[in-house]
Structure formats: structure tokens, C-alpha cells
Give the backbone structure.
Amino acid sequence: MKTLFATLFALLTLHAAPAFAASPLVGRWALDIASLPMPPEARPKSVTLTFAQPDAGTWQTDIQIIAPDGGKMDSAATLSLDGTPGKVTGSYWADVGTAKMPAPNVVVVQLAYQGTPSSTRIYSVSVDGATLTETKAFFTKDGQPVLQTTTFKRLP
């Protein structure tokens, strides 16, 4: 009888709490610097994104940038995936952000700095999991909308 009860309890527990599978976006990514639409001397030396998903409702981002002159910039955030604004730390012109994950291979992040919207970024991963595409939507200082696409390669 104990065995039957234990088996039924285990089955009910598994059914009630399905296993959490992290997004295929999770991992470390290096920007394809050569693909940037700017002169080579203006391009950063490197940009590394690290995405983590501690649980089904939370998204973590850590960004490390090495500027052309060797200076370093960074940004980090742990955001709720329900679109609730959360704090962004670091030196990369963002202090608040929101995030949503409309599909397991897509995350949308909206950023603001000192009360002013700065950009919306849509990250999607290729079917083979090797390439991350970032589509960045923002406005120039004279109000012109810009859509910029960059690619990242998965790091080991």
C-alpha cells in the first residue's frame, strides 16, 4: 500500500509541476564585430552578452563591452518576464528595463535611461542554436526611427 501511495503521489507531483526548460537563448554570445554598420575604427573591440533564466518568470542579462579605445562598459539586469519594470545597473545608458518572452527562442527588452526611452531590443536564436540576432529599434536625436540588426555567435 505504501508503494502504491508513493507512486500515485509522485505521478500527481510531476503532473502538477511540469519541468522548467530554459530558453535556447540562454548562454554566452559574442558580437560579430565585422557586421556592424559603422567604420571599423568606430566599432567596439568586443561585446559579450550573457543570458540566463533562473526560472520560468525571470530573465537575466549581463553585457560586457570593450570600446575602441579599450575602455569598458557594462550592464546587468534581472527582470521579470511579465513586463514589470526593473532596475538595470552599469554604465551602458540604461537604468530601467522591461522584458517579455513571446516564444522560447525570442525575448523582447525595452530600455530607458533617466526617464527617457532609449531602445527596444528583440533577441532571437536560430534553429541550430548557434546564432543570436538582435534587432534594435530606437530614434535618432532628430526623431528618425532606426531599425538595426546585429548578429552574435554562441560562445562555449
